[in-house]
């Protein structure tokens, strides 16, 4: 921004004229003020002298009793052109004499006097000393002086005090002083004007003329005339500036030639870069300042079609569906001052479409304002085709993966169906076996009471016979001895009693088998959870009890007081079967490994705990003291087909099916708590009553 909108040869004399005018005006104003002050002081002094002299003369004339001379003295005061008004009032403030005849014999209060003058009358009579007051408009002064008017009858010393009031006009004196000050100021202004002209001529010779030469050389230099130099003589500052300018011009000329050479090398380098390098500058609109020849191979248009043209020319070859996205992305990157990478399509002259990758960045000044954009455009058509082929391949892979997943799902469902069918077949077989066993057992159990009764009758008869015939026949005695009749009497009741206990046990087993045989029931009903656990343990009893080569497993039951639970009884028994089977397997494997290593540890045990979880849930915990599960494996134990057992030993569906039964079928929770060397605990939580 220019501080002075006009050249120095004009602005300096204007400044000097303004300065001279202001100085003359200030001098004139100060002269007027001083003249006014001097005239006011002179007027007050003259009024004091005149009032003092007049009051003394009036007192003298009153002592003589010469009233006519008093009136003449007052009239003489009126002959002074500077005295506007003079009056003498008595002790009652009644005007006795005045320069204006119409005021005589009137009270002083009837004439228009400043209010502060009347208030001074009483004070003046008390102190018997006169005062001079300057009017508020500073155009006149007032003199108030006491005058002894003579003694009243019978008084020795006069007590009548009148007031002499004189108004002295100083306006005429001020007007004369203003005229004198104006004359003197005019003389001073003329002198200042002549001085300013001399100073301007001096500045024009030593400053503005030489500065104009320096400006002309600078303008020529800015237009490209790098060989023009400022030839200014002397050793003052302008000469030093001219010398520095000439030195700077030499350096700029040298640097410009070097820059032109560098630009040639830059264009050669850019022409060998794959793609097109460009620069957009921002003036009134975005303009393509430079774009390399590589754009011709990409777009089919020569670089000359775009250089020094608005960016809209290049935007016209961008695919219509991509143009808005390109503009929005670049504007957003400029606002956030970030680099941008855009992929879009351009349309060549033959209407073929090519993909390009445009990478650029904004260059900003220290204030954050955008200066230009630098970037490079690379043909990415081949890469986009490869990406499309890769996308198709990945899509095919995803389809194959989806097919494999579906097949795996079908396989899982098939295995689950097989598992369910196996459990159903097992239930049917158990039901058939239980039925076949139940009939003869009931027959035996029902006849044991009769046999017991009959044997008791026979034993009673034998005892009675021995009492009646203590000496039996020899053959009978030999038979009694051979069959050990006394032993039979003692042992037969025990045999019958043990047979009854055995049949009761067989009936209990049959009842448990019949309950377990209801696995294929699909109805929801309230059941006793403990009966389901006990039945499962009964089925697994052969794996639990000790064998000649393997220690048995101790079952610890910590049953709580559970109400009947509404559930799928058969499916829940299947969960107990899967979990207990896994626990038994883990304990057997641990025992075999410890036996091979000749290690001993605590006995194998399974702790089954049930309890009520407030408010309406039951919790079943099955915990073993086996080897535990590694943390890396634990998250996968409920996945289908996952198993840690050797190949051919397990299907990997037991816990997966159990999880579906507990969580999906019953809306419950199945949790595994385990650590290596600390055993494994499976916790089942299900609601007591199912919601609709």
Automatic annotation (TrEMBL):
GO CC terms, sorted: membrane
Domain PAS residue range list: 262-337
Main location as per UniProt: membrane
Gene3D superfamilies per the UniProt record, alphabetical: 1.10.287.130, 6.10.340.10, Histidine kinase-like ATPase, C-terminal domain, PAS domain
Membrane spanning stretches: 6-28, 181-203
Alphabetical UniProt keywords: Coiled coil, Kinase, Membrane, Phosphoprotein, Transferase, Transmembrane, Transmembrane helix, Two-component regulatory system
Keyword Lipid metabolism found: no
Reactions catalysed according to its record: ATP + protein L-histidine = ADP + protein N-phospho-L-histidine
Molecular function GO labels: phosphorelay sensor kinase activity
Compartments (UniProt record): Membrane
Top EC class of this enzyme: transferase
Domain (HAMP): residue spans on this chain: 205-257
Domain PAC residue range list: 340-392
Official protein name in the record: histidine kinase
Lineage, uppermost ranks: Bacteria, Bacillati, Cyanobacteriota, Cyanophyceae, Oscillatoriophycideae
């Amino acid at each position: 921004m220019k501080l002075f909108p006009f050249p120095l040869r004009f602005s300096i004399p204007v400044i000097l004229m303004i300065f001279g005018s202001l100085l003359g005006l200030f001098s004139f104003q100060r002269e007027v003020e001083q003249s006014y002050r001097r005239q006011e002081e002179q007027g007050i002094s003259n009024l004091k002298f005149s009032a003092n002299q007049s009051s003394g003369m009036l007192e003298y004339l009153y002592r003589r009793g010469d009233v006519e001379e008093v009136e003449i003295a007052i009239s003489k005061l009126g002959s002074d052109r500077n005295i506007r008004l003079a009056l003498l009032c008595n002790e009652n403030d009644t005007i006795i004499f005045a320069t204006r005849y119409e005021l005589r014999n009137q009270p002083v209060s009837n004439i228009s006097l400043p209010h502060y003058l009347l208030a001074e009358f009483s004070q003046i009579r008390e102190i018997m000393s006169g005062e001079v007051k300057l009017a508020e408009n500073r155009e006149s002064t007032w003199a108030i002086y006491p005058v002894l008017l003579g003694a009243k009858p019978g008084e020795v010393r006069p007590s009548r005090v009148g007031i002499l009031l004189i108004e002295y006009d100083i306006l005429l004196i001020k007007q004369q002083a203003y005229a004198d000050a104006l004359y003197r100021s005019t003389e001073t202004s003329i002198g200042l004007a002549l001085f300013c002209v001399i100073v301007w001529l001096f500045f024009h010779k030593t400053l503005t003329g030489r500065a104009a030469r320096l400006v002309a050389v600078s303008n020529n230099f800015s237009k490209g005339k790098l060989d023009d130099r400022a030839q200014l003589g002397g050793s003052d500052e302008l000469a030093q500036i001219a010398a520095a300018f000439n030195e700077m011009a030499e350096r700029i000329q040298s640097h410009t030639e070097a820059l032109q050479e560098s630009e040639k090398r830059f264009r050669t380098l850019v022409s060998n870069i794959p793609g097109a390098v460009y620069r957009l500058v921002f003036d009134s609109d975005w303009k393509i300042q430079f774009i390399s020849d590589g754009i011709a191979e990409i777009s089919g248009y020569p670089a000359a079609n775009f250089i020094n043209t608005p960016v809209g020319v290049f935007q016209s070859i961008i695919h219509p569906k991509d143009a808005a996205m390109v503009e929005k992305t670049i504007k957003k990157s400029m606002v956030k001052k970030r680099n941008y990478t855009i992929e879009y399509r351009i349309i060549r002259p033959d209407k073929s479409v090519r993909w390009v990758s445009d990478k650029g960045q904004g260059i900003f000044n220290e204030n954050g304002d955008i200066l230009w954009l630098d970037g490079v455009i690379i043909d990415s058509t081949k890469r986009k085709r490869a990406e499309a082929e890769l996308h198709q391949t990945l899509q095919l892979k995803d389809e194959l993966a989806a097919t494999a997943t579906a097949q795996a799902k079908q396989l899982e469902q098939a295995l689950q169906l097989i598992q369910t069918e196996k459990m159903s077949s097992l239930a049917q077989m158990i039901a058939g076996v239980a039925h076949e066993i139940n009939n003869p057992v009931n027959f035996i159990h029902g006849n044991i009471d009769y046999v017991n009764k009959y044997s008791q009758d026979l034993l009673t008869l034998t005892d009675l016979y021995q009492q009646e015939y203590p000496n039996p026949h020899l053959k009978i005695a030999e038979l009694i001895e051979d069959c050990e009749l006394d032993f039979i009497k003692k042992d037969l009741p025990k045999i019958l009693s043990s047979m009854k206990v055995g049949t009761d046990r067989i009936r209990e087993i049959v009842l448990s088998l019949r309950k377990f045989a209801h696995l294929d029931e699909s109805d929801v009903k309230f059941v006793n959870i403990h009966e389901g656990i006990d039945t499962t343990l009964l089925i697994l009893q052969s794996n639990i009890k000790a064998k000649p080569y393997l220690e048995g497993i101790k079952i610890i039951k910590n049953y709580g007081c559970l109400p009947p639970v509404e559930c799928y009884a058969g499916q829940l028994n299947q969960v107990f079967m899967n979990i207990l089977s896994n626990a038994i397997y883990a304990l057997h494997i641990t025992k075999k490994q410890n036996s091979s290593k000749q290690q001993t540890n605590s006995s194998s045990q399974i702790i089954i705990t049930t309890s009520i979880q407030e408010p309406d849930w039951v919790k079943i915990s099955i915990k073993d003291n086996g080897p535990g599960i590694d943390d890396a494996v634990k998250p996968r134990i409920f996945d289908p087909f996952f198993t840690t057992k050797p190949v051919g030993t397990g299907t990997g569906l037991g816990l997966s099916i159990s999880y579906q039964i507990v969580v999906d079928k019953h809306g419950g929770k199945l949790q595994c708590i385990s650590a290596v060397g600390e055993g494994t605990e499976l916790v089942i939580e299900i609601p007591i009553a199912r919601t609709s």
